[in-house]
Amino acid sequence: MTHETADTADTTRTPDAVATAAAGPSGPLGGYRELMGVPGAGRLAAASLVSKLPINMFSISVLLLVSPRYSYGAAGLTISAMLIANALTSPLRGRLADRHPVRPVLLGCLVCYLGGLAGLVASASARLPFAAVAGSAAVLGASFPPVTIMLRTYWRAVPGERTRASAYSLESAAMDLTLITGPALAGWLSTGLSPVLPLVLSGSLMTVAVLLMVTLRRPAARGAGDGARDWLGPLRPVALRKVFTAHVLFCAALAAVEVVLPIYAQKHHATGYSGVYLAGLSVGSILGALCLGAASAELRRRVQLPVLLGAFALGCCLLALAMHSSPSLVLLVCPLTGAAIGSTFAALFTTAGRLTPAGYDSEANGWMTSITQVGFAVGASSSAALAAGHGSSFFLVVTAPAIALAVPFLRGATD
């Protein structure tokens, strides 16, 4: 994806005017306006949004479809089968995207994904043995089209540091937006119309995302060089492994916050606040990511990953203090804590992209996807057990060490 050269015959502009034009649109939203001026950026943004909705709709859709026909435990196992299969195969699908043409990889994954989705709906609706339901979910997860994985590779090809920063921030904001709207949409469709409809919609949305991607010109690939046959690929550079480690620690800390907030609301007889707390985190995260993308290059250089992680740790401490006061105060603090989440995600993926060896961009993004799910699984399970036995604010036992360990890794990787 490249800017097209225009007005090449205009030789009368002053040096200041030329410099201003080269810098792109001015103002706090200049980076986003410049990004939307890149050919294909609008389709990429649309693909980003519609590809993230299916995975964020999946859990509540399966819960409402499978649990009445089998049990809540069976629904949980179905969700786990999809997530585990997705996490295990994300690097492989990323490697396929790096080494083969886009069209057959995406369309092949889409066919298998739709087959798994159809198998899940059919087996659950017909009350077939549970193995058929779980197996279909595993096929679905293992063949999830790598649209999101490839998107960051496409965004990386956008010209200009400010424009790339805006692109990564927009990607993080889209993730948070679908975290809010996906479950709400799936719940409304399942309870108001049909429990099958959210999964049908998920298949349609993923099909649209794939079609959008295959109609775009693939960015010029960075050469893989001598490492083309290296099976370790993006796991080879020490600096990138450090970023992976910091990422899993950050995800574990974030999962602890997201799990403990509903537990706190339940224990303090404010169950109605559970979803609002999480929405507050997501809204703060969206605003934080968008603000970082709109910031000047000088400010972004100063706001490095250790600073963002420190801001998130401070937000967690404020949450812990608010939990000793009232549920209403916790609600006010949630957006403040969330402000560092989206910007940290954007900065982590940006740093990982910068450190990725040539020819392994999508595979590295696949590893980041897997690491995200592993971090959330570890953080959610450990924090739930601690909060249940020792009180909600005890989640700092998970978050504080995780953030403290992540910072040295990032300093070593980004120095």
Automatic annotation (TrEMBL):
It is a multi-pass membrane protein. Residues 8-23 have a biased composition (Low complexity). Residues 239-415 form the Major facilitator superfamily (MFS) profile domain. It comes from the Bacteria. It is found in: Cell membrane. InterPro entries: MFS, MFS_dom, MFS_trans_sf. PROSITE patterns: MFS (PS50850). Residues 1-25 are annotated as: Disordered. Keywords: Membrane, Transmembrane, Transmembrane helix. The chain crosses the membrane at residues 44-66, 72-92, 104-124, 130-151, 196-216, 243-264, 276-295, 307-323, 329-352, 364-387, 393-410. This is MFS transporter. The lineage of its organism: Bacteria, Bacillati, Actinomycetota, Actinomycetes, Kitasatosporales.
